[in-house]
Design brief:
- Helix content is 43%, strand content 21%.
- By secondary structure, it is α+β, with helices and mostly antiparallel strands.
- The protein has a domain of 63 residues: Roll (SH3 type barrels), CATH 2.30.30.
- It has a 5-stranded antiparallel sheet, covered by helices on one side.
- It is elongated.
- It comes from Weissella cibaria.
Length: 128
Protein backbone atom coordinates (compact mmCIF):
# COMPACT_ATOMS: atom_id res chain seq x y z
CA UNK A 1 0.00 0.00 0.00
CA UNK A 2 1.55 3.27 -1.08
CA UNK A 3 1.12 6.49 0.87
CA UNK A 4 0.46 9.60 -1.13
CA UNK A 5 1.07 13.08 0.18
CA UNK A 6 -1.48 15.77 -0.37
CA UNK A 7 -0.55 19.34 -1.23
CA UNK A 8 -1.48 20.43 2.33
CA UNK A 9 1.02 17.93 3.78
CA UNK A 10 3.78 19.21 1.52
CA UNK A 11 2.98 22.79 2.59
CA UNK A 12 3.35 21.82 6.28
CA UNK A 13 6.71 20.16 5.63
CA UNK A 14 7.86 23.17 3.61
CA UNK A 15 6.79 25.53 6.40
CA UNK A 16 8.64 23.44 8.99
CA UNK A 17 11.78 23.31 6.83
CA UNK A 18 11.65 27.08 6.29
CA UNK A 19 11.14 27.69 10.04
CA UNK A 20 14.15 25.58 11.03
CA UNK A 21 16.29 26.98 8.21
CA UNK A 22 15.58 30.67 8.79
CA UNK A 23 13.73 31.43 12.03
CA UNK A 24 14.81 28.91 14.67
CA UNK A 25 18.08 29.65 16.50
CA UNK A 26 19.57 26.83 18.58
CA UNK A 27 20.70 28.17 21.94
CA UNK A 28 23.37 25.49 22.32
CA UNK A 29 25.01 25.47 25.75
CA UNK A 30 23.11 28.55 26.88
CA UNK A 31 20.19 26.38 27.91
CA UNK A 32 22.49 24.34 30.21
CA UNK A 33 24.35 27.22 31.86
CA UNK A 34 21.85 27.57 34.70
CA UNK A 35 22.31 23.89 35.53
CA UNK A 36 26.10 24.17 35.56
CA UNK A 37 25.97 27.38 37.58
CA UNK A 38 23.79 25.84 40.30
CA UNK A 39 26.04 22.76 40.54
CA UNK A 40 29.14 24.93 40.70
CA UNK A 41 27.61 27.16 43.40
CA UNK A 42 26.65 24.12 45.47
CA UNK A 43 30.15 22.64 45.10
CA UNK A 44 31.82 25.92 46.11
CA UNK A 45 29.57 26.15 49.16
CA UNK A 46 30.45 22.58 50.22
CA UNK A 47 34.17 23.26 49.78
CA UNK A 48 33.97 26.49 51.80
CA UNK A 49 32.09 24.71 54.59
CA UNK A 50 34.64 21.87 54.68
CA UNK A 51 37.53 24.35 54.74
CA UNK A 52 35.93 26.31 57.58
CA UNK A 53 35.39 23.13 59.59
CA UNK A 54 38.97 22.00 58.95
CA UNK A 55 40.34 25.37 60.06
CA UNK A 56 38.48 25.18 63.40
CA UNK A 57 39.56 21.65 64.33
CA UNK A 58 41.65 21.41 67.45
CA UNK A 59 44.41 18.99 68.34
CA UNK A 60 43.26 16.88 71.25
CA UNK A 61 45.68 16.21 74.15
CA UNK A 62 48.16 13.41 73.50
CA UNK A 63 47.47 10.10 75.21
CA UNK A 64 49.73 7.15 75.96
CA UNK A 65 49.34 4.31 73.42
CA UNK A 66 48.67 1.81 76.23
CA UNK A 67 45.77 3.95 77.52
CA UNK A 68 44.37 4.33 74.00
CA UNK A 69 44.49 0.60 73.25
CA UNK A 70 42.92 -0.24 76.65
CA UNK A 71 40.07 2.18 75.97
CA UNK A 72 39.55 0.82 72.44
CA UNK A 73 39.64 -2.81 73.63
CA UNK A 74 37.05 -2.03 76.32
CA UNK A 75 34.83 -0.27 73.77
CA UNK A 76 35.22 -3.24 71.42
CA UNK A 77 33.96 -5.64 74.11
CA UNK A 78 31.04 -3.41 75.05
CA UNK A 79 30.11 -2.40 71.44
CA UNK A 80 30.48 1.29 72.29
CA UNK A 81 31.15 4.16 69.91
CA UNK A 82 34.62 5.69 70.16
CA UNK A 83 36.24 8.88 68.92
CA UNK A 84 39.90 8.88 67.84
CA UNK A 85 42.32 11.38 66.37
CA UNK A 86 45.41 10.47 64.42
CA UNK A 87 48.93 11.78 64.95
CA UNK A 88 49.62 13.68 61.75
CA UNK A 89 48.89 17.02 60.20
CA UNK A 90 48.32 17.84 56.57
CA UNK A 91 51.00 19.75 54.71
CA UNK A 92 48.98 22.94 55.16
CA UNK A 93 48.88 22.44 58.96
CA UNK A 94 45.27 21.29 59.16
CA UNK A 95 44.60 19.05 62.16
CA UNK A 96 43.12 15.65 61.23
CA UNK A 97 39.43 15.13 61.86
CA UNK A 98 38.10 13.06 64.73
CA UNK A 99 36.98 9.65 63.50
CA UNK A 100 33.86 8.32 65.19
CA UNK A 101 32.46 4.81 65.05
CA UNK A 102 32.39 1.32 66.48
CA UNK A 103 35.59 -0.64 66.91
CA UNK A 104 34.93 -3.46 64.46
CA UNK A 105 38.25 -5.26 64.76
CA UNK A 106 42.00 -5.30 65.11
CA UNK A 107 44.97 -6.37 63.04
CA UNK A 108 48.55 -6.77 64.24
CA UNK A 109 49.34 -3.15 63.50
CA UNK A 110 46.00 -1.36 63.19
CA UNK A 111 42.58 -0.86 64.70
CA UNK A 112 39.48 -0.88 62.53
CA UNK A 113 36.89 1.75 63.41
CA UNK A 114 33.91 1.49 61.11
CA UNK A 115 35.56 1.03 57.72
CA UNK A 116 38.73 2.99 58.59
CA UNK A 117 41.98 1.09 59.20
CA UNK A 118 44.07 3.22 61.54
CA UNK A 119 47.67 2.19 62.26
CA UNK A 120 48.31 1.91 66.00
CA UNK A 121 51.44 4.05 65.73
CA UNK A 122 49.31 6.92 64.33
CA UNK A 123 46.85 7.06 67.23
CA UNK A 124 47.06 10.34 69.16
CA UNK A 125 43.89 10.48 71.25
CA UNK A 126 40.80 8.37 71.99
CA UNK A 127 37.56 8.79 73.90
CA UNK A 128 34.19 7.04 74.35
Amino acid sequence: MAVTLMDDDIDIFAQAARFFAHDYHERGMVKWQGYYLSDHTEDVHKNQLAAAQAATRQRMPEMDLAAITALLFDAYGRHEIVHVQQNFSATDGVVPEIITGLVTGYTESAVIIGNAHIPLDQLWWASK
